[in-house]
Write a structure and sequence with these properties.
The protein is of the alpha+beta class. The protein has helices at residues 2-42, 76-98, 103-126, 147-169; strands spanning 48-50, 55-62, 129-137, 140-141. It has a four-stranded antiparallel beta sheet with strand order 1-2-3-4. β1 (48-50) and β2 (55-62) form a beta hairpin. The chain is globular, with a radius of gyration of 19 Å.
């Protein structure tokens, strides 16, 4: 009887942890899609509005992956990157289920998950990813990106930090 109580608590803890992590992923996804709908409604392709001396809002369509990798590949990349995104999302949900108590790791995976799904939705709806954040210095421009990309990048940095901290704890 005691073991079933313990299992019940563990199961409840695991599902509440999953709810938190999936909620964070959903927040990234909703912010991403909301901002993209605003950009699509206000900007035409190629439009740019200066906000500061180092930042513009723009409308760019990325038919490839990060930094427009394979953007000119002829269309097959849309389905390739969509498939990779779906497979990655399934893997990340599994990882969250397996490690709900590892807070930094799960936060990182949640941010990446929300961003990955946001970009998959773009590929399915439009055939490209909508990018709109343009940071620059002088004439040098960082490639335009979106909220999903920011979630993926911050999540990746947190994964690296989590691994560094895990290795240090192991010493």
């Amino acid at each position: 009887m005691a073991s079933s109580k313990k299992f019940g608590k563990s199961g409840a803890s695991k599902s509440s942890g999953m709810a938190l992590w999936l909620g964070i992923a959903l927040l990234v996804l909703v912010l991403d899609q909301f901002t993209k709908v605003l950009v699509l409604g206000v900007f035409q392709l190629g439009d740019s509005t200066p906000i500061t001396s180092f930042f513009n809002l723009v409308r760019v369509h990325n038919h490839g992956a990060a930094f427009s990798f394979l953007a000119g590949a002829g269309g097959w990349q849309r389905w390739f990157f969509t498939g990779i995104g779906v497979a990655a999302a399934i893997f990340m949900v599994w990882m969250l289920r397996s490690h709900p108590g590892q807070k930094l790791f799960s936060l990182a995976i949640s941010l990446i998950l929300g961003g990955a799904i946001g970009n998959v939705i773009d590929r399915l709806l439009y055939g490209y990813v909508v990018d709109f954040l343009d940071f620059y210095w002088g004439t040098w421009h960082f490639p335009a990106f979106n909220v999903a990309d920011a979630g993926i990048s911050v999540g990746a940095a947190l994964l690296i930090l989590d691994e560094i901290l895990r290795v240090r704890r192991g010493r």
